[in-house]
Amino acid sequence: MSGCGSGAPKFKSTDITGVDYGKNLALADTTGRVRRLDDFRGKAVVVFFGFTHCPDVCPTTLADIAGALKTLGPDADRVQVLFITVDPERDTAADLQRYVSAFDPRFIALRGDAAATQQVAKDFKIYYEKRKQGDTYTIDHSSQSYVIDPAGRLRLLVRPERLAADLPDDLRTLLKEKA
Question: Count of H helices and E strands in the chain?
Fold first, then answer.
């Protein structure tokens, strides 16, 4: 079978090229500027949904993505990481900026009101739900990351436990493609 290759790139992550979701995004960054996926055309984009009060998955995921970028050397400048909060009630712009900058100053945090957050999560097939926890709450949420190629197409779904191992090679492969 190996001689019957289609010429398509071989990814370590789940190749979801051609899916009909993850195409729209219009949320404010921490300066208030509305960002859209088209703003990042020409770069590979890693999209992750989470929240700043997350005790485990979110900080681990962002640290793994930052580590993956470090392995790319100068090519890391051709990758944009977007962290989208699923907790706009608590995650202020200032909190988000401090949070993502702790992992990599190039990361951009995005937020919207409850309706905009719900719409973007739906567009990316992200589950999230507020759960009471003592006197406060936490948020259960999907933990996958998505990778969009420089032409603006959603290409990969990366499971959190595979980020460190798979993302660097997959980003290198995407950055070699013609847009």
Answer: 4, 10
